[in-house]
Inverse folding.
């Protein structure tokens, strides 16, 4: 499975951005995905969960983004989205798209990861 993210950029505090991520691969691999979501990482810190959503559409958010970010997915298009409103400078990070996959993939590599996309929020 390959995950291709897009939509990062530079925005002023209080602004909005929308991240998109498309999954591609064999139908068998794609069908193994239940949860898709977004993580972020800043230099010197561990990668942290921002939000994820399961195949039924049930979302889960980090406390720091609740009320500001909205995650959604389109299963038919194999895509997940992150709408980020009221952005703060502390949201500045590299954002990574993630999908779980079969247990063997989760155990070996923590699931599938896309290349990061930079989000920079200026004060």
């Amino acid at each position: 499975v390959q995950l291709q993210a897009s939509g990062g950029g530079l925005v002023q505090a209080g602004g909005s951005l929308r991240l998109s991520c498309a999954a591609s691969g064999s139908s068998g691999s794609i069908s193994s995905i239940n949860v898709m979501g977004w993580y972020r990482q800043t230099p010197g810190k561990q990668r942290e969960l921002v939000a994820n959503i399961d195949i039924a559409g049930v979302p889960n958010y980090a406390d720091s983004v609740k009320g500001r970010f909205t995650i959604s997915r389109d299963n038919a298009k194999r895509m997940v989205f992150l709408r980020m409103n009221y952005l703060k400078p502390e949201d500045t990070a590299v954002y990574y798209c993630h999908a779980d996959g079969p247990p063997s993939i989760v155990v070996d590599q923590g699931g599938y990861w896309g290349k990061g996309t930079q989000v920079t929020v200026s004060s």
About this structure: Residues 103-109 form the longest helix (7 residues). The chain has a mean pLDDT of 96. The chain is about 10% helix and 50% strand. The first strand starts at residue 2 and ends at 6.
